[in-house]
Design brief:
The chain is 23% helix and 28% strand. The protein is an alpha+beta fold and 206 residues long. Bound molecules: fe (ii) ion.
């Protein structure tokens, strides 16, 4: 007998801490995030109106690669990884390039969370982790077949990772995660007293 495994869901993970100039880059990203959280009035207004506990520039400034050198440098680094990931996925890009078309920053406060969502109209999405204090929220991915399972029994406790319905990953400072944009994910409640800072991005084909 044999059992075949079909329809895989891949999460790409890399640490950027060994990149040249990492400490300065990460420090600049943290400074810029704090500055934007203080100065971006449109973004703060959107967060207040939409119940985001902290600050995100998602609705106001999603072109950060054009606004500061540190974001531009991060974008270049991440784009290289996105190309590698697309190759590993054996994605048929039909000769087109995979390009980052948006980048925004997230500053999550104690008690804040980000409900489950996907990133429509994108090919790849991901997050880079700038500041992850002890007790930070994880990122939680959902089995994309969940809505079809109906009477399927749940897997046994502590089953293999690729059989679990939900998987929580706990990124560290300098980690980069990438996934296909249709994969639903959420950020559970952030329990640390200090903020969790991340930078997120979407890619499309051009
Ligand atoms: Fe997201």
């Amino acid at each position: 007998m044999s059992v075949s495994r079909l329809f895989s869901t891949d999460i790409y993970s890399a640490s950027l801490v060994d990149s040249r100039g990492f400490d300065d880059l990460n420090s600049d990203l943290a400074d810029m995030a704090a500055m934007l959280a203080n100065d971006d009035e449109a973004g703060v207004k959107w967060c207040n109106e939409n119940g985001y506990d902290g600050y995100t520039s998602y609705s106001s400034l999603d072109d950060l690669t054009r606004r500061a050198t540190c974001f531009r440098d991060l974008g270049r680094l991440v784009t290289k990884h996105a190309g590698d990931f697309a190759s590993q996925l054996e994605m048929d890009t039909a000769g087109r390039r995979i390009v980052m078309d948006s980048m925004w920053v997230n500053v999550l406060r104690h008690g804040g969370r980000h409900p489950a969502h996907i990133h429509p109209h994108s090919v790849l999405s991901g997050t880079y982790y700038v500041s992850v204090p002890r007790g930070s929220a994880s990122i939680r991915f959902e089995d994309p077949r969940l809505g079809l399972m109906m009477a399927a029994p749940p897997p046994i406790p502590n089953c293999r990772l690729d059989r679990q319905r939900f998987v929580n990953l706990e990124p560290k400072v300098g980690d980069l995660l990438l996934w296909e944009s249709w994969l639903r994910h959420e950020v559970p409640v952030h329990k640390a007293r200090t903020v969790r800072i991340s930078v997120s991005f979407n890619f499309r084909l051009t």
